[in-house]
Amino acid sequence: MLNWRRSYVHSRTGERAATIRELYRTCSEQERQLSDEFFESYLAGHGTAGLTAIRGIREGPGLFADAPRTVERGGGHGGLRERLSAELSGCETAVAVSGGIDCWLLAALLKSDGCAVRGWYLESGVPGYCERDQVLRMADAVGIGCECIRVEAVDFLESLPEFVALTETPIYNLHPVSKLLLAQGLAKRGIRAVVSGDGADQVMRWDWNCDLLPLTLTCFEAVGVRLVAPFLSEGVISLCQTPSSDKSPVRALARQLGVPDVPKRPTLFPEIDGSAVADYSTRLLLETLRGRVA
Length: 294
Known about the structure:
This protein has about 290 residues and is mainly alpha-helical. The strands form two sheets. The chain has a three-stranded parallel beta sheet, with helices on both faces. A two-stranded parallel sheet has the order 4-5. It has helices at about 15-25, 30-45, 65-70, 80-90, 100-110, 130-140, 155-160, 160-165, 175-190, 200-205, 210-225, 235, 250-255, 275-294, and strands spanning about 95, 120-125, 145-150, 195, 225-230. It contains 14 helices and five strands. About 45% of the residues lie in helices and about 5% in strands.
């Protein structure tokens, strides 16, 4: 597997970057001043006051930066099952699952290889956000048992200070905090490694503007749970000589394994205005910076 530091995405441009920039500009004057400085540093791969928002970026350009020159040419998509199976060999059989197709493909692949797979998912109960019903439908279709880690809507907001301190990054929506809550829930239950579908979108679609992946990896490392992400392996990346906007290789393999085809849907925490979260999380970063200077 890859060193997790190499998998950080260097986001220079793109629609997501423009959205974050606009949200930060709605902050109060004090926070906006930090936000402008922070955001310019963030896009350049550096941090504020000696911190680095995207950890590990100073070690090199990052796995997905300048993609046409860093992704191996050749190989095609025909060997995806073999490459994923090789990465999953000897892995733990706990799988972090959600309503998406990537994690279920890996769960089904482990099951087809004779492993006793158990899915783990975060159940928030937040209307329009919680994926419990979709997870249970997928679990029934694939024939895999699941365990839920139950949290409440308030846990997202209460965990935001810890999230910002760990990631050194302000956020504009509370969804990334779910990664910390899931990682903490797994650690409390004694799970030290979990298989994840993270990275499939970035590798298959050549999505170089992802900011969730580095935050996810940071959260899992912080609580001592190893994130096994087969899609981020050199073997899988080397197959992706051209981008696939609909991840057709993943969907084709999923069909072979009996995984229902479900569309990609945006996952955002719905109950708090984005500019309010950006303002609050930026203030939290200010407090973190001041605390470390003092």
